Amino acid sequence: MNHDILLIFMILFALFAMQAVGGYFQIQDYKKAIRRVHKLGNVGIGQKRGGLFNGYLVLIACNADGVITGAEIMDGLTFMAKFRRCESVMGYQLTGTNIAELLAIFRTLDKKQTKYMKGYIQAAEALEMRLREGQLETS
Asked: Is the pTM of this model over 0.90?
């Protein structure tokens, strides 16, 4: 019985250690992605927290005119998920689209679609707010 409890604790500790190490590498990947996307323009960040399967983190870059210059997304089940380029969302091309146009599309979605697109909406709204306030950097 004592051996079983010890084995369970050892397994739990190993899983915790793997999660901690994986989290460290995921944070490093996040920092690299921020630097990469920031080179494309001003960055808006959004996330959709998921239950077990459907969460993601999205980075959207735009220029001082509000035109999207690039985007990256990280989605996946484990700490091994990496950022990857995101060319389109819901069949709409991201690069070259104006933030206002993208938000207009998002505002026509039904409740379920809006919930799924929450991260994209957050990132676009952050950029829109900075654009309205004149806080976007010119390249």
From this structure: no
